[in-house]
Amino acid sequence: MSDDARRLKPVDVVIVGGGWAGSIMAKEMTEAGRSVVMLERGPDRSTASEGAYPASIDELEANFRYKLFQDLSKNTVTIRNNSQQTALPYRRMAAFLPGEGVGGAGLHWSGVHFRIPPDDLRMRSRVIEKYGARFIPEGMNLQDYGVTYEELEPFFDRAEKVFGTSGEPYMINGKVVGKGNVFSPSRSDHFPLPALKDVYTAHLFRKAAEEAGFHPYSLPAANASRQYVNPYGAQMGPCNFCGYCSGYACYMYSKASPNVNILPVLRQHPLFDLRAGCHVLKVELDADGRRATGVTYTDPDGKVVTQPAELVILTAFQFHNVRLMLLSGIGRPYDPVRNEGVVGRNFVYQNVTTSNVWLDRGIETNQYIGAGGGGVAFDDFNSENFDHGPLGFVGGSPVWVNQAGVRAIAAAHSGGPPGTPRWGSAWKAGMIDTYRHSLRIDAHGSNMAYRDVYLDLDPTWKDAYGQPLLRMTFDWKDNDIRMNRYVVDKIGDVAKAMGARRVNLTKREFGRPFDTRQYQTTHLGGGAVMGSDPGTSALNRYLQSWDVHNVFVIGANAFPQGTGYNPTGMVAALAYWAAHHIRTTYLAHPGPLAG
Amino acid sequence: MRGLAGIAACGTSLASRPARSHPPAPYVPRFFTPIEWAFLTAACDRLIPADENGPGACALDVPRFIDMQMDTPYAFGAQWYMQAPFVQGPDNLGYQLPHAPRDLYRRGIAGMNAHAATRHGRPFADLAPALQDDLLRGAENNRLVFGDIPSSVFFDQLLANVMEGAFSDPVHGGNTGLGGWTMLGFPGARADFMDWVDRYGAHYPLGSVSISGETA
Amino acid sequence: MRGVVKRTWRPLLAAVLAVAVMGAGPVRAQDDAQHDAVVARGAYMAVAADCAACHTASGGAPFAGGLAFNLPTGTLYAPNITPDRQTGIGQYSEAEFRRALRRGIRRDGATLYPAMPYPSYARLTDEDVHALYVYFMDGVKPVAHRVVQDGMSWPMSMRWPLAIWRTLYAPDPGDVRRDMDRRTFADPLVARGSYLVEGPGHCGACHTPRALTMQEKALTAADGPLYLSGGDAVDGWRPVSLRGENRTGLGRWNEHDIVRFLATGRMPLGAAFGGMTDAIGHGTQHMTDEDRLAIARYLKTLSPAATPVAQGWTYDPTATDALRAGNVSARGARSYVDRCAACHRTDGRGYPTTFPPLAGNPVVMDPRPDSLIRIVLEGNVLRATRQAPSAFVMPGFAAGMDDAAVADTVTFIRAAWGNDAPGVTTADVGRIRRTLSPEHPPASLPMN
């Protein structure tokens, strides 16, 4: 198809995907004086239309008709639990909810904005140092990122300032300055905004977690605790805890999004050309496959066109980046039998379970009040903050109350305590009691990478453009289930300190497979990971393809394994990190940045 | 027959917002046939019955909501991946039928009424509530056989839409008088808690409001 | 100071140069550097005179005309003022151009509608008129675009009464010159400000009341306290007083506030709406900081117009306390809490520079509630400017609130937090609603 495609005028940089990573890269490349075309498969979007008040405050449209999410009718994935099964299409939104349209999922995310724990960046080395190489379970592809926290710190700082992140620091330049997360690494500067206020449930959780001997802190949130002007001059309003973050464009302009924080400036730049409704089919390579020459896409009229470019940056959602590499022949596809090849390798998820605590009926928990990124967490069982030696598992999990706002339909679906029917008068009573008097506590755990958990192209099902769907082979593994069960037990301690009337600890069950029908999280990762060994990573530590040097791939696809934190902060920092090296080195001397 | 009575008893017109000035006219379903409508209204009121905790699904015009939804792209499966082949697999790999919600209702309601007729000699709507509950539980647990769709798939579709109808914004045709939100204590489309976020333990006193401005 | 206007014209912002270069047509230059400087100065004066606000249609070519201008007497369409010889002003000599600008006489001798603010442009210096002429001839791209006939109904469609009007009410440029020479200013910035505001800026065209016969009741600060004391409806908006009234004018705005407002459309006490959006968008945001400061300092010399002077506004927390206690029994309080407070807060203080305060806001307390009602019905777009790239949108509530609900809400806003403006009726709202254009929300919403 590429041969027949109409060729457009060459540009310096083509960026595939108009979310956070794409917007950051486009901003950086235009600042470097390069002409940029950003291609976004979905429609153009803005707070003024998608976030109009009060019309956008519509749970049915936002969360149950997926107004701002990927159009699965055109493109989805297939899923199976193991390679003996036939993977089947993910036909209806459920377990994860990828975004679509300008701003990507960054328009309708929640806003939790973390830096990665330093130990997570060198997880393999750290585990071996602490517990020996034999501690790593058979079949686990534990790896390092190839980059250190110290190297990334300036870019975490940059991202927080662009996002207008609210938080409480613990340590700045080695000095303890605040009541932030005692496990968090030293920072070079304060958060740009103070932490959000605790909602009531987070307040209760903070007290109880302290009583239970843990170290609670305010979640770092890209929901502005007050009005803010970022380094680009873009303005944010303050978060008013409306409870409509996840699934919504923020009508207060207070949740960071590419649309609010970057695009107002970027759209004015004469070197920036945003093309919405453009679905990229493949990255074009030269004859020997060592250099990209541009991308081929279908435009909004359905015509196939080729956009030549000197530099191709993939910034689509995690699995779309991986799929585009597979479709384009960039990097060697992963072979799970031999554990060789890199594209599709180390596909990971996030290991989240939500427990419930019922308080006295005199206590109204007001779960509709919330901020997507706000809340209180403790990290005592995250990363390498605790001794895994006697526990025998790798990984960890922060525990938190992250009350993003529970809305009415969601409350109805959640129902009552375990054992309550799903309908009828008993359901009604249980559901109302639960909504009014309970709170939710998450164990937001890491998911390790395994040899037989991976991505490849599906042999049967195709997308609307005739290209094979991506196939996920995924299941929960004992290591991760044991980790979850250990940490969730700690939630029991907190619930007790809260004076819970009733507790439902939700744990992963051994032998219960990954269920695509229940929403878990959209924190998918890996599949085209970064690292220092081309034998185990698709990208070098600058997120540059080892094989095709003028292709950079930015996203959670680069995570060699899951972490306990939400991915966006890390993705944004990696984008600024890669952009820095492109600007300072690659543009002057195009070629591999790592040998 | 009971079906038409169901229309009269259950359906009301969409109130002209923000204040109603006319007595509501009966809602006439556009998608559901009278027999289907009779099933729907009867089933909705079993799934969310009126009781001491608040109104039932009919008072909230949940059947109207579902009928109105049947005219949206969602009901035609426009947002679902509907490419063949349709291969059945383990439940945890998700929905794998070639049917959009409209088909599921047509087939599911026919299946429910067929079971009602076989067992009790009458359509579902004409059964006593306890018998209706038995049939609904049978579908929920996939104990009924409908021929072309698993009964639990239909039940899940119905239950999901009933919940949506009772608790979505009234602009979509359900949650009449904001009754669903009021029973839950959900403030709705005001979406501002700046004054309340840190008033720990305080009762939030303001009633619900719709996107349309209708208040409760 | 003797000279009326200090020559504060400075090397121009790159931005203004860019405007000049973008519009550059065939340049008939002799001495190029000097000529370019004159073009650039003309471009800057075109900004200061806000020519584009009327003569550039939304989405149209610069200065090619066509913008509809709704006046109480009918709809005007601004003409094409590009140097196109057939449809624009390409055949104007400099003398004809000067006569049109200052006296309102077209090349063919007909009189211009006074929507063209020639009573103000009469004050333009020779040097600035020359620069404008050179700019429009050499710096603006000619565009062939024939503007439709003015849509005024008879007798306003006849131009001969306009000549009489002009003779009666438009100042003679010679007299203006003599007046200007007589006025003295201790502060050269104020002198510059008076020139910009009374002359090219023609602020009075909107902000000064007009007589029944449509002339502005005052053309300069020297004409007394009606000058800039708040204008009649322009395009459905009621321009506020720019004088020093505490409640309904700029009494509580300081110089810095005004400068910031002119640059960004937003400052802690208020945000731009209505016609001011274009005045900032085409005009003041492109001016130099020094000129914005000159305007601010000059405006701060204007004494309050109202007599007797109303008591100064002070914040009254009564309404806030009630709302925070969940008491929404006051008329309009419930709809305020349901529809407005998310952004403007129960304390009416808003989130300054993002969402403007209603407490103490002169627009809110204006005796004429038209603008406030209209904003509630229609919403508002606070546009991005060079210094403030983020736009903010207030949604309109025309579809979601009936006249009674709007009247209740506006009445609440006008009386809460120390505001002291009288309530409004359902009929007031109905009157404004009937004037609304069907094209709302605006066709081009900002993309952030």
Automatic annotation (TrEMBL), chain A:
The keyword Endoplasmic reticulum does not apply. GO terms for molecular function: flavin adenine dinucleotide binding; oxidoreductase activity, acting on CH-OH group of donors. Transmembrane segments: none annotated. It comes from the Bacteria. The keyword Oxidoreductase applies. Residues 202-349 form the Glucose-methanol-choline oxidoreductase N-terminal domain. Residues 12-57 form the FAD-dependent oxidoreductase 2 FAD-binding domain. It holds the Pfam family GMC_oxred_C. Residues 456-575 form the Glucose-methanol-choline oxidoreductase C-terminal domain. Keywords: FAD, Flavoprotein, Oxidoreductase. Belongs to the GMC oxidoreductase family. This is GMC family oxidoreductase.
From TrEMBL, chain B:
InterPro entries: Gluconate_2DH_su3. Pfam families: Gluconate_2-dh3. It comes from the Bacteria. This is Gluconate 2-dehydrogenase.
Automatic annotation (TrEMBL), chain C:
One of its GO terms (molecular function) is heme binding. SUPFAM superfamilies: Cytochrome c. Its main location: membrane. Heme c 3 binds at C340, C343, H344. Keywords: Cell membrane, Heme, Iron, Membrane, Metal-binding, Repeat, Signal. Transmembrane segments: none annotated. Heme c 1 binds at C51, C54, H55. InterPro entries: Cyt_c-like_dom, Cyt_c-like_dom_sf, Cytochrome_c-type_DH, Membr-bd_ADH_cyt_c. Residues 1-29 form the signal peptide. Binds 3 heme c groups covalently per subunit. It is found in: Cell membrane. One of its GO terms (cellular component) is plasma membrane. Coiled coil: none annotated. Heme c 2 binds at C203, C206, H207. Its cofactor is heme c. PROSITE patterns: CYTC (PS51007). Residues 37-140, 188-303, 327-417 form the Cytochrome c domain. This is Alcohol dehydrogenase. It comes from Komagataeibacter intermedius AF2.
